[in-house]
Amino acid sequence: MKTKFLIPILAISLSTVACNNNSTTKQETADAHAGHDHSAAGHEGHDHSQTATTQATAPEQTAVKAPVLSIPDFNFYKVKSGIAFSKADIKPGKNTVFIMFDPSCGHCQHETSALSSNYAKIKDINVYYVSMNDPALMANFFTSFGKELEGKANVEMLYDRNQDFIQKFHIPNQFPANYVYGADGALKTYWEGEKPIEEVIAAFTK
């Protein structure tokens, strides 16, 4: 019974901590924001520290504490068509990246713009943007921030209607949260928050 009440609350909490760059990121990206001024991203004056603390502790009873080591079964939905998208639909033989994001997150917008400008470097990997936000808020995200990603065969915008990501993959503390899986479906690396696009592309394509 507890799960039914905790997960909807968790979805709300995740949206409020989007782009939080005050907490420590995972793995090699702990210092990714050092020396970076993100005030232009529209997050000045937002204090997410209290919410982030709640986010980090409250859901531990029911949700994934660390990223899964291999891609789990899931059911997402293509934002443009509403067609279901599952693990079986992932194109085989290449790296697969899941980007958990919030359309209103300035850091998510910035990373997407940078990836769009460097699309030629990521054209041979699967890139799946995943969000629990209303599809209406996601529909024009690429049009606004990633024009070169829109309509590409290897890039898909997915709606997580049933909150599969936070229940089966991981609960991130910051957006964008990037998860890189190899052609064998095994987790290669992940990080939370924004970092230099050169590092992002290197991780995606390694």
From TrEMBL:
Question: Where is composition skewed (Basic and acidic residues) in this entry?
Answer: 28-49
The family database entries (Pfam families) matched by this protein are listed as:
AhpC-TSA (PF00578)
Asked if the keyword Signal belongs to this entry, the reply reads yes
Highest taxon, organism lineage: Bacteria
Region ranges (Disordered):
25-61
Against PROSITE patterns, the record matches this protein to:
PROKAR_LIPOPROTEIN, THIOREDOXIN_2
A GO molecular-function annotation: oxidoreductase activity
- Signal peptide position in this chain? 1-20
Q: Do you know which InterPro entries this protein is assigned to?
A: AhpC/TSA (IPR000866), Thioredoxin-like_sf (IPR036249), Thioredoxin_domain (IPR013766), Thioredoxin_ResA/DsbE_sf (IPR050553)
Q: Which UniProt keywords apply?
A: Signal
- Thioredoxin domain segment(s): 60-206
Listed Low complexity bias regions = 50-61
Which residues fall in a coiled-coil region? none
Indicate the transmembrane segments per the record. Answer: none
Q: Give the protein name, as stated in the record.
A: Redoxin domain-containing protein
